[in-house]
Automatic annotation (TrEMBL), chains A, B:
GO terms for molecular function: magnesium ion binding; thiamine-phosphate diphosphorylase activity. Binds 1 Mg(2+) ion per subunit. It is an enzyme of class 2 (transferase). It holds the Pfam family TMP-TENI. 2-[(2R,5Z)-2-carboxy-4-methylthiazol-5(2H)-ylidene]ethyl phosphate binds at residues 127-129, 158, 178-179. The lineage of its organism: Archaea, Methanobacteriati, Methanobacteriota, Archaeoglobi, Archaeoglobales. Its cofactor is Mg(2+). Mg(2+) binds at residues 66, 85. InterPro entries: Aldolase_TIM, ThiamineP_synth_sf, ThiamineP_synth_TenI, TMP_synthase. It comes from Archaeoglobus profundus (strain DSM 5631 / JCM 9629 / NBRC 100127 / Av18). Condenses 4-methyl-5-(beta-hydroxyethyl)thiazole monophosphate (THZ-P) and 2-methyl-4-amino-5-hydroxymethyl pyrimidine pyrophosphate (HMP-PP) to form thiamine monophosphate (TMP). GO terms for biological process: thiamine biosynthetic process; thiamine diphosphate biosynthetic process. This is Thiamine-phosphate synthase. 4-amino-2-methyl-5-(diphosphooxymethyl)pyrimidine binds at residues 33-37, 65, 102, 130. Pathway: Cofactor biosynthesis; thiamine diphosphate biosynthesis; thiamine phosphate from 4-amino-2-methyl-5-diphosphomethylpyrimidine and 4-methyl-5-(2-phosphoethyl)-thiazole: step 1/1.
């Protein structure tokens, strides 16, 4: 599983999930998460179906946040779980695909490791995207998680074109961004810039 | 599938889901829905697991509201979907069990009928349990739905021991209650009273 630049869609800025996904797919992003906290399941289904169509067109991986049933319904490649979602050890029994989980410490990462396919670790830096975000773990905290697990680690939280190289140097296999792209004046250009840096560290 | 008295658990009153479920199971209710709008998925999983254990003990049917993934995770017998949840035609593909759907009109009931196993119709009367509840359909509206579909109809909304006979006379196969039991001083006694009336109309 290759992750690289991992774009998480958001409807909290001025564009739709579909517009953002299409912009990043066009410039080469191949790992996308659908994350939405305000729509009804019926609405989410409709958006996720569109994202599935787009990601298939570009042979990209589609991950659905939280809702395993939605992931099953649209045949997503994976689900991403938070610590408050369905337990990952249970999800592995009902979902036959990629399972990722958010972690904030070495302890959480180690607990999740044997059940899941990738670990997201963060927030690395302070971020405004997530309300009630936890204290940043910093590059040091990220490095500790990377060195204590064997599964691929994805860094998340406050990552942008100015700090992404520092993040990549910790040994992560993926870098997740939301606002650096979704809140950019030109999402396509921002994705392209970030992708160029990521590819210098994580090329196949 | 026998429905009869269909109890929907609620944590909005002074008892837990588990306490309520155990009370109604003890007196003979055999169709229970877990409905919860405020807990995290992780918390819901923990409660639903307890309800699954209880309902298995009593050979009762367990239905999970909204979340098909939660139903899969705890091996519930069925899911209940609202008009804003995942589309029932899709759910039938990912969930191999009972699928019920909330309807408010003959039109909604007929659209759902061929995909699902039972139709809930309501609110029959005015109710305080559900915020933003729709206009009541009344006994007349209920009768119209019952006579226009072949699948079993479950009446819901404001049903109590004083009006339940009128509801049963419309030809429904089930009667769903929340507050008539959950908000009772003695849930067990209230469930028993309702069950006795239901059994006069819907005995096997
Ligand atoms: Ni409804």
């Amino acid at each position: 599983m290759k992750i690289g630049l991992y774009f998480i869609t958001s409807s909290e800025f001025s564009r739709t999930h579909e517009e953002l996904a299409e912009a990043v797919l066009r410039v080469g992003v191949r790992f996308i998460q659908f994350r939405e906290k305000n729509m009804s399941a019926r609405q989410m289904f409709s958006v996720a179906k569109n994202l599935r169509k787009l990601t298939w067109e570009y042979s990209a991986t589609l991950i659905v946040n939280d809702r395993v049933d939605l992931a099953l319904a649209v045949e997503a490649d994976g689900v991403h779980l938070g610590q408050d979602d369905l337990p990952f050890e249970v999800v592995k029994d009902i979902f036959d695909g990629i399972v990722g989980v958010s972690t904030h410490s070495v302890d959480e990462a180690k607990k999740a490791e044997r059940y899941i396919d990738y670990i997201s670790a963060g927030p690395v830096f302070r971020t405004t995207t997530k309300k009630n975000a936890k204290e940043p773990i910093g590059l040091e905290g990220l490095r500790r998680i990377v060195s204590s697990v064997k599964k691929p680690v994805v860094a998340i939280g406050g990552i942008n074109k100015f700090n992404i190289e520092d993040v990549l140097k910790t040994g992560v296999k993926g870098v997740a961004v939301i606002s650096a792209i979704a809140n950019s004046q030109n999402p396509e250009k921002s994705a392209k810039e970030l992708l160029e840096i990521v590819k210098r560290y994580l090329d196949d």
